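Listing S7. Sequence submitted for prediction.
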Amino acid sequence: MPSDAPLTLVALLHGPDQRGLVARASGWIFQRGGNILHADQHRDEDEGIFFQRIEWVPPAGAKPAAEEKAFLAYARNDLRMSAVVTDSARRARVVLFVSKAEHCFHDIVLRWRAGEFPCEIVGVVSNHRELAAAARGYGLKFFHLPVATGTKAKAEARQLALLRRLRADVVVLARYMQVLSADFLAAFGRPVINIHHSFLPAFAGGRPYHQAHERGVKLIGATAHYATAVLDDGPIIHQDVTRVTHRHSVEDLVRKGRDLEKLVLAQALRWHLENRVLVFGRKTVVFD
């Protein structure tokens, strides 16, 4: 957030649709002297669920924590909606998990250094040493935590202890080529964003570009999603595709796919950090 930008609050709400929700939420902010900068909403016709994102400047002199608490109480007790509220002064603490592939790692870090992401990258964790020098060259702390088949539980325990020490808010799997266990995800209890190098749900699992080439597809894609206990099945945040033909080799698909992976992961992370993603069941509503 630029130093001269006003502090803002962002609320993400969802619940059964009712008449007057937009007017009542905006009216509450108006009556307290706030100024709405952005408001968007969506109704799931099949489920009858209403989703909304509101961003506003709180009244002069108000304490953000008190405004957050008051809005949450209003949403719960009066609107009968589930809500989360964040403020723009909070910069999420991000930890990158990487293996050997470096394209997503460099792209995320360079965008962060350019000020594109409202966060702090507080560490880089890897099961290999290849990116240690690059991470330290960026001034980032690098942690080598090897993972072997027989020691995975111990490795994940070390990772969790490190995440607690770093006070991580979100983990980004920037082509981290290990499957995180259900126990790890439950113990961490915070968002984990993964980039998968295919247009899910097609070609889940390993070697998706080889699978795509063998199938002779005409489009390849990349998918950023929240990691869950089911491999490559978490709520999708963002996807994109590019065309390929029978003339493209597996190496061509990998090369073209790298560009997609960088763009898709960067956009997904940006939306997450700007509190534009609302998870509902196996899906997301993204207020872009």
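Caption to Listing S7: primary sequence and predicted structure tokens for the chain studied. The chain has two domains: 9-87, 92-286. The longest helix spans residues 250-273.
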